[in-house]
Amino acid sequence: xxxxxxxxxxxxxxxxxxxxxxxxxxxxxxxxxxxxxxxxxxxxxxxxxxxxxxxxxxxxxxxxxxxxxxxxxxxxxxxxxxxxxxxxxxxxxxxxxxxxxxxxxxxxxxxxxxxxxxxxxxxxxxxxxxxxxxxxxxxxxxxxxxxxxxxxxxxxxxxxxxxx
Amino acid sequence: xxxxxxxxxxxxxxxxxxxxxxxxxxxxxxxxxxxxxxxxxxxxxxxxxxxxxxxxxxxxxxxxxxxxxxxxxxxxxxxxxxxxxxxxxxxxxxxxxxxxxxxxxxxxxxxxxxxxxxxxxxxxxxxxxxxxxxxxxxxxxxxxxxxxxxxxxxxxxxxxxxxx
DNA sequence: TGTTCGGCTGGTCAGTTTGTACAGTGGTTC
DNA sequence: GAACCACTGTACAAACTGACCAGCCGAACA
Lengths: 164, 164
What we know:
Alpha-Beta Plaits, 37% helix, homodimer
């Protein structure tokens, strides 16, 4: 930053170089530090320092393996909105967490109290999973909808490009 | 598989060793092939072959950097259910994709036609994003709810552990 | 104006890992 | 019994990593 004189984004935690680095790694995650430095046209130590800093700040939390559940046989994704009995959220969350097919749970404002993403192998399997969810003590009502397609897959890219 | 004589899971695409490997990489993604082989107690070539195979089968799609949007200033997450005008889904999806804060879109069954996950820097910022979404041609109605917490963060772990 | 500080550069070093190859062994299948 | 496949153990050259250093430059500050 000192030397390249770039304008600082108002959020100082990620500057242009950081963003370019993250984008590069998004496209080719297995790149080593050395290769990154070559592509970005900076010294290797700089890339190393940036990665360390991003990690220290919690922006970069790691490089988890991306597993395609569909390729593993879990071809169905569904979303469930749950209404739960007053004051039993903790209990319900624990119950949901115990179900492997429940891949994500959020507590939300609005009608539903909890929002869950679940996967299943087939319609019949989904039925089973939903029954399991409904059977969790404290769950009052469940309304679900199946994901037919995912026109915009999970992404961070545009937000990073904005900084670049 | 030949030598260790483990029982085959009914879905042949991921066996016990594969699952253990993926779990290991989930916990410590930066591990190299050599280190993985040591931890798993198999030869390096085996790990290499498994990774290649998992990748070829599309189960392992890569090691994308995990960026924490909250740490980048996007501390708010919200979910939006959209109703759209008949036959204009493509158009709406394109419009949504153009909004960086829209991090994910699914087409679903049920009342809503589209389901989106969006992030924002603050309540005011969320308002702006939502207005932007509503302004996308073809969007009829939007109902949103804010994620207050995420008791179960995105995970694949339990499904892999089941195989192990 | 001069000094200090932080970040970047470009270089070196030893140690480790990767990619690739090969022969050997033991189950499994036909 | 032969062919096949997956895994093991080994080898080697090439590449990468982590660590360190001196030097340069711009920004902040007295």
